[in-house]
Design goal:
The structure holds 2 protein chains of 2 kinds. Chain A is of the alpha/beta class. Chain A has 8 helices and 10 strands. Chain A has a 6-stranded mixed β-sheet, with helices on both faces. The radius of gyration of chain A is 17 Å and the shape is globular. Chain B starts with a strand and ends in a 10-residue tail after the last helix. Classes of the chains: A alpha/beta, B mainly alpha. Chains A and B meet through helix 2 of A and helix 6 and helix 7 of B.
């Protein structure tokens, strides 16, 4: 079912305390797709991912994963439905070794990748098991942050700015990994500021501005929309 | 008479043993405080009161139910742990979103109420608790006499402390705990029920205090104020070791107990303040504590 919506967000409002961050956004991610959220800083991209995971103050509207409503669900149950979250700050634990970081998220579904497969995808992590997690380089920490959710069997991955602050050669490696994940059938919703990186990977792009989704551009129509996109992103 | 550095050996080893016993209690209590602080960010002022409740539970079980020392060693911490879980669920958990000060004030209030209640019912004179038959008597080590019960307390406390350290630093459950201490939101987002872990951690931390209370009952007598006398020093131990550091709590607890014992021999007048002098020095030189990490 290539066209079935895996994740469906309708009229989603999200708040941090008093501040109203998302103003009724709607988007969908289909099974097996890679979809990016583009937009300037503060447009609400990260908040959208956090709202899916239930880590914002308050949400209204609807977020459905394969038809199951996530709003109102206890926070720790969301991941159990098969969502893997890679936060912007990577969230590598300094009091845990690389191996402990890698095996921390519980397995939520059968069919996750084995450690051998993960080490094949990210050779940098092999043989580093007893190193303190935060002693890895920034790029390696990013790989670890992605790697640890591949074990869990989650089939929808929320990736928040996987290339932020990384050297071009590392970005290339992350890109290869994300494409490999796509080939394996993972569905990916990704926040990305690096539009050129996004263009090499994604099927579709949603553009966000001030808490609204203002446009959706399929990747194969990117060329004709470049001018518009530059205006959105202010580049 | 044999002397070491001009000090009679008997007195020296006697005081060192006393220091080691005190240190065992410091270690057990500060370990619980460290675990709770690490996970809940709450400075558990009720810790001394839970220690006292542990001792009283053992005493009451013996007086009214005929339950002896060995079952009490398991049951009293269980009772105290359950009390802690109820306290966390019904009151403490409501305060996490507020300043840490509120948790401190709540637990301080609970400590006052528990101590006041027990003082009202049982008075302030200590109740003796008999040493279990298996541990009466002692060993002549040649250089000193070691009462069996005191040796048992040191060993039991060491085993529990090291077991706890191992569970936290080397097991999967411990990895959850360490991770949740660092970033509870993310751990929750991985599908782990963090609120349940927090409740269990508080229950476990105060159960350690309850266990210390049972161990202490035959040595110090059972008294409503036994906790508040001890807890001030234990807080100093936690500060010296580093807030939230597991290993720091254990090593510092035992070390300071020994140091206190040594001071009693060398310069008895300073023995009651030596811990606080060390605390002041450590705070000046290494504010995060000997084993603590700057946050």
């Amino acid at each position: 079912m290539p066209d079935a919506a895996m994740l469906e967000i309708v009229d989603l409002h999200a708040f941090y305390g008093e501040s109203h961050v998302l103003h009724g956004i709607g988007l969908e991610v289909r099974q097996g797709e890679v979809v990016t959220l583009l937009g300037r800083n503060g447009a609400g991209k990260t908040t959208t991912l956090r709202a899916v995971m239930g880590i914002v103050g308050k949400r209204t509207g609807s977020i459905r994963l394969r038809g199951t409503e996530l709003i109102g669900m206890a926070q720790h149950r969301v991941a159990r439905l098969g969502i893997g979250y890679v936060p912007e700050e990577r969230g590598i634990f300094s009091s845990l070794s690389v191996d402990e970081n890698l095996t921390l998220p519980p397995v939520v579904k059968p069919g996750g990748m084995t450690l051998a497969q993960i080490h094949e995808l990210f050779p940098n992590l092999a043989g580093r098991g007893s190193t303190q997690g935060t002693r890895l380089s920034g790029g390696e920490q990013q790989m670890l942050a992605v790697a640890r959710i591949l074990r869990t069997g989650a089939d929808l991955i929320l990736l928040d700015e996987p290339t932020e602050g990384l050297a071009p050669v590392i970005i290339e490696q992350i890109g290869r990994a994300v494409r490999a994940l796509k080939r394996r059938g993972f569905t990916i919703l990704m926040v990305e500021q690096n539009f050129r990186f996004a263009a090499t990977i994604a099927d579709r792009h949603y553009v966000m501005e001030e808490g609204h989704v203002v446009d959706m551009i399929p990747n194969d129509r990117l060329a004709e929309n470049t001018g518009k996109l530059h205006a959105y992103l202010g580049v | 008479m044999v002397t070491l550095f001009g000090i009679p050996a008997q007195a020296l080893f006697g005081q060192l043993l006393l220091g080691l016993i005190n240190g065992s209690f410091y270690a057990l209590l500060s370990l619980g405080l460290a675990v709770i602080f690490g996970m809940l960010n709450v400075i558990n002022f009720a810790h001394g009161a839970f220690y006292m409740v542990g001792a009283f539970t053992a005493w009451l079980m013996l007086q009214h139910l005929g339950i002896g020392y060995w079952p009490a060693l398991l049951l009293a911490p269980l009772v105290v742990g359950l009390l802690g879980i109820v306290l966390e669920k019904t009151m403490l958990s409501r305060l996490y979103k507020l300043d840490h000060l509120y948790g401190l004030l709540l637990t301080f209030g609970v400590a006052l109420m528990l101590e006041g209640g027990f003082r009202h019912w049982f008075g302030v004179s200590g109740m003796p608790y008999p040493i279990p038959a298996e541990l009466r008597g002692g060993q002549n080590l040649g250089f000193m006499f070691l009462p069996n019960y005191r040796g048992w307390v040191v060993i039991a406390s060491l085993v529990v402390c090291l077991g706890t350290w191992y569970a936290i630093e080397r097991t999967r459950l411990g990895a959850y705990l360490r991770a949740a201490t660092e970033n509870p939101v993310l751990v929750q987002a991985f599908g782990i029920n963090v609120p349940v872990m927090v409740t269990a951690t508080y229950g476990f931390g105060v159960a350690l205090a309850g266990l210390a209370g049972v161990l202490a009952a035959p040595i110090y007598q059972v008294n409503p104020l036994m906790g508040s006398n001890l807890i001030v020093i234990v807080f100093a131990v936690v500060v010296i070791g580093g807030m939230g550091s597991i290993l720091g709590a254990i090593v510092t607890g035992l070390g300071l107990g020994l140091l206190e014992g040594l001071t009693k021999v060398v310069y008895p007048e300073a023995s009651s303040i030596v811990v606080f002098v060390i605390m002041a020095i450590v705070l000046l030189i290494k504010p995060a504590g000997l084993f603590g990490r700057e946050r």
